[in-house]
């Protein structure tokens, strides 16, 4: 086991702490935190193989050197990633600040491959509101997307606004740009999809107030804004940023990830399995699948994997191969019958897509369960319709034309609800994701997120015609009845 205060120990602890955070964020449907689950799982898309590379170096000095390089690569993504790493490592009892290289200050704006300055996310302040109002016609703006989500006990949100330019966008002006507003600690929501034209921004020391249409309103403690506009470099704000942004050749870029040899044998099988688990958990970013991803079960199956990988990697030769085989078999055992089909399917994919020694292939064939498998990491949702629920997530997207292709409106609702089976009062609450296509009306008030409400739905189990939560706190209706 790696010593406390070492880079290798911190790297393994980051994985273990990530699994703990995922398990905590998915343990109770009434406190479900999809943002945290997605953010934490996403870390390991590009950092799983560096972990295994560090754990399997020939000497302890080599393992420590590789771990330092892996941590530096992980932290180089930005100051938020670095802060998250330090915080999580300290929570696991592993000091990390002194191990990482000093943070590098990066310019506010960067340039694309053509040398054009690009926008960046900025805090929503009075100055930012003035800047946006100078370059975009807020009175003619339309809400394209409204999203509200419970993140733990707090309510966060976002708005995507179709905002006509006040400046000449040239050849890039074919489609209306979008202003993407992110809000933290939302305290008030009143929105009606029939009243979504025109936006007013008021930002001050007491927070943010966003007026929508004639009667809509959102309040939040803080937020950020980002103009998704390919012609932004021609705007008033873009031209000002261009004058103070270094040339592209002079900007510091992220150091490319070093190329490393592919792991072999059972080490490769374990690395691919862990990587696939994290990618599968990350699917919760698609809210309509939130109730179908067994994040808690997967995190529980791999609990302690960081320390176990370091211990197995410190072995040599056949002992290392045997240790990683035991580790994979332990994950399958911990997953139980609910996850065995997925592990079986994943191991078979690894065997078919990777160059593995015949002895490793024979081992995989011996531990995979014969019979049907599941091609995707999802579970079958409960089809019984709940009679009450706590709102965890609500998203409305208006109809639009993108790249000359019409797209219908839709709404996605995620609820925490008590078990629907009889005599199941002791069972935990569950998540339920519902989708309404071709929405004719979407109305939402903040009290929809306050505790459990009665739920009334019409239509199929997975795609409904209408949904009403509480006393009209949330009301979603489809334009046309399902056949």
Structure, explained:
This protein is of the alpha+beta class and 483 residues long. The chain has 3 domains: 7-103 and 259-367, no CATH class; 122-245, no CATH class; 388-478, no CATH class. Helices cover 34% and strands 24% of the residues. It has helices at 7-26, 34-43, 48-55, 60-75, 79-91, 126-135, 236-244, 265-281, 295-301, 305-313, 317-353, 358-367, and strands spanning 122-123, 142-151, 154-162, 178-192, 199-204, 207-212, 216-228, 388-397, 400-402, 405-407, 410-417, 430-437, 439-445, 453-459, 464-469, 474-478. The strands form 2 sheets. The protein has an 8-stranded antiparallel beta barrel. α1 (7-26) packs antiparallel against α10 and α3 packs antiparallel against α4. It is globular. 40% of the residues are buried.
Order of helices and strands: HHHHHEHEEEEEEHHHHHHEEEEEEEEE
H/I helix tally: 12
Number of strands: 16
Shape: globular
Percent in helix: 25-40%
Please identify the structural class as seen in this structure.
alpha+beta
Count of discrete structural domains = 3
Quick overview:
The protein is an alpha+beta fold and 483 residues long.
């Amino acid at each position: 086991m790696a010593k406390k205060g070492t880079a290798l120990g911190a790297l393994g602890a980051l994985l273990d702490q990530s699994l703990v955070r995922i398990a905590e964020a998915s343990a109770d449907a009434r406190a479900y935190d999809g943002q945290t689950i997605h953010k934490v799982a996403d870390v390991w898309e590009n950092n799983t193989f560096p972990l295994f590379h560090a754990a399997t170096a020939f000497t302890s000095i080599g393992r420590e050197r590789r771990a330092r390089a892996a941590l530096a690569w992980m932290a180089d993504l930005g100051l938020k990633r670095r802060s998250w790493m330090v915080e999580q490592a300290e929570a696991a009892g592993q000091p990390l600040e002194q191990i990482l290289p000093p943070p590098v200050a990066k310019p506010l704006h960067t340039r694309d491959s053509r040398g054009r300055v690009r926008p960046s996310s900025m805090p929503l302040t009075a100055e930012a509101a003035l800047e946006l109002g100078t370059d975009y016609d807020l009175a003619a703006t339309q809400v394209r997307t409204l999203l509200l989500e419970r993140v733990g006990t707090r309510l966060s949100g976002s708005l995507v606004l179709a905002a006509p330019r006040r400046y000449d966008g040239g050849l890039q002006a074919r489609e209306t740009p979008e202003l993407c507003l992110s809000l933290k600690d939302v305290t008030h929501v009143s929105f009606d999809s029939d009243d979504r034209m025109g936006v007013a921004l008021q930002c001050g020391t007491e927070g943010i107030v966003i007026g929508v249409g004639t009667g809509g309103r959102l309040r939040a403690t803080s937020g950020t804004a980002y103009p998704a506009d390919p012609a932004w470099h021609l705007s008033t704000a873009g031209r000002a940023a261009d004058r103070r942004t270094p040339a592209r050749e002079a900007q510091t870029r992220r150091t490319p990830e070093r190329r490393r040899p592919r792991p072999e044998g059972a080490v490769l099988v374990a690395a691919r399995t862990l990587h696939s688990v994290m990618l599968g958990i990350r699917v919760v970013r698609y809210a309509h699948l939130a109730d179908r991803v067994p994040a808690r079960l997967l995190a529980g199956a791999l609990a302690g994997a960081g320390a176990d990988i370091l211990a197995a990697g410190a072995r040599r030769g056949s002992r290392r191969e045997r240790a990683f085989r035991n580790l994979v078999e332990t994950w399958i055992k911990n997953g139980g019958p609910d996850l065995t089909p997925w592990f079986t399917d994943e191991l078979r994919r690894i065997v078919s897509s990777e160059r593995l020694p015949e002895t490793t292939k024979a081992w995989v064939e011996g531990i995979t369960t014969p019979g049907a498998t599941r091609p995707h990491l999802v579970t079958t949702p409960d089809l019984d319709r709940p009679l009450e629920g706590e709102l965890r997530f609500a998203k409305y997207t208006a109809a639009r034309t993108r790249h000359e292709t019409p797209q219908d409106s839709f709404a996605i609702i995620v609820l925490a609800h008590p078990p629907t089976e009889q005599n199941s009062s002791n069972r935990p609450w569950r998540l339920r994701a519902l989708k309404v296509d071709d929405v004719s009306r979407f109305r939402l008030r903040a009290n929809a997120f306050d505790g459990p409400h009665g739920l009334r739905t019409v239509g199929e189990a997975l795609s409904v015609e209408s949904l009403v939560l509480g006393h009209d706190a949330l009301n979603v209706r489809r334009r046309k009845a399902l056949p």
